[in-house]
Amino acid sequence: xxxxxxxxxxxxxxxxxxxxxxxxxxxxxxxxxxxxxxxxxxxxxxxxxxxxxxxxxxxxxxxxxxxxxxxxxxxxxxxxxxxxxxxxxxxxxxxxxxxxxxxxxxxxxxxxxxxxxxxxxxxxxxxxxxxxxxxxxxxxxxxxxxxxxxxxxxxxxxxxxxxxxxxxxxxxxxxxxxxxxxxxxxxxxxxxxxxxxxxxxxxxxxxxxxxxxxxxxxxxxxxxxxxxxxxxxxxxxxxxxxxxxxxxxxxxxxxxxxxxxxxxxxxxxxxxxxxxxxxxxxxxxxxxxxxxxxxxxxxxxxxxxxxxxxxxxxxxxxxxxxxxxxxxxxxxxxxxxxxxxxxxxxxxxxxxxxxxxxxxxxxxxxxxxxxxxxxxxxxxxxxxxxxxxxxxxxxxxxxxxxxxxxxxxxxxxxxxxxxxxxxxxxxxxxxxxxxxxxxxxxxxxxxxxxxxxxxxxxxxxxxxxxxxxxxxxxxxxxxxxxxxxxxxxxxxxxxxxxxxxxxxxxxxxxxxxxxxxxxxxxxxxxxxxxxxxxxxxxxxxxxxxxxxxxx
Length: 551
Description:
This protein is α+β, with helices and mostly antiparallel strands. A hairpin with a 2-residue loop joins β2 and β3. The longest helix has 19 residues, at about 75-95.
């Protein structure tokens, strides 16, 4: 019986999604685990959505679950439209990138995107964090940073020598040492940006792990959207100011001094999609990046930094950025635009969320709240002060950072998990330590991350308490309570400019009359229907939601 039901699902998959062959493989694996009654197993996001829409159709049209092969084709468009957004992010992540002939084409393409594929392995994230916060110990002979997180133990060092760089003269070797000897002063959030930029550009172009790519200072300045004094016909900026160019050159040179070593006896590269792993023996110190064909910029006799070079990740880092063991996520390119000192906390939180969303992607666990205080809290992530004397200022700054990330599209929405937190704060004297630092925030990713256009669809496939959903039970027949709850939530009309406009016209109402019924201004409604409001107030959305779903 179960095998028959499994076959029905997969046959329906082929019928409705002939253009998504990866679904057959992915869903087949997920259903096999579910049929084995592995109650804690989390299927992929798209299969969860498929379960929900199938159950909706069964209940809404008095269909028989076991006869889905006969009736599914009649509802093909409805099923596809519901499930497709949940597939899209997987497709984008695994899609092969078309090769560009040079960095300029790649960069111009990236500047038309909001997000780009970037490294998201634990080692990648912790190294970037170490660089941004300059956690290297200068008390040692060689500046060293220890990285210890979960099963990862690694050491990073700043070394001015580079045995991999071919230099023909002693003078050139001395110049290189002079250039890189002060790298410790350049470990900051801008250097972390260069780390991301080089990784992104290499991942876009590399066809094998040992491939070098050309990197020019202007590449980083364009991706940071700094305005040059000249602009080429294709929009590429050139002729940057001296300080802007010097800042990049200095930090690119600093990045080449980082060497890393895994401290455990062996390292596992886990392929999350295929569920297998590969063990690599302990390695000696390995350069983070390898460079060649280096052009060093001078001012007088003093070297300033690397103007351009050929570059690729070192052997260890390349394992995380290329091939079957690659661990990558999506980084908001707006992160690179933030000011490296005035908005460093914005950068750090954006990078952290990018890493977290990649971890949560498989089980679509996006709605789990983040702690504000504590060793794993967001304040610690950003390295924000937690001095109670400045409690109000810290809270205001924290909220402003999240507001800015929402305004810039890095996150879709955020809110406190504790709904009455403001009232608690008003009533407590020591609210900062006793209430606010212990609070949590819920951060909803944008559609580029989830592939889901409406927040309610995201909540739809999440269990209320964020525990594992028992889909094997659903396959054998949902209880009346689960069914009623699912239908009620799915059938609720969505609030979008298109649905509001269509409903208003169907009811024969003018903008003014409809706005009066909703309790909002007619100008707000008019602008919303024309898709001119980027961030509508939650209060107005709630009023429109009540109006469109009024019986």
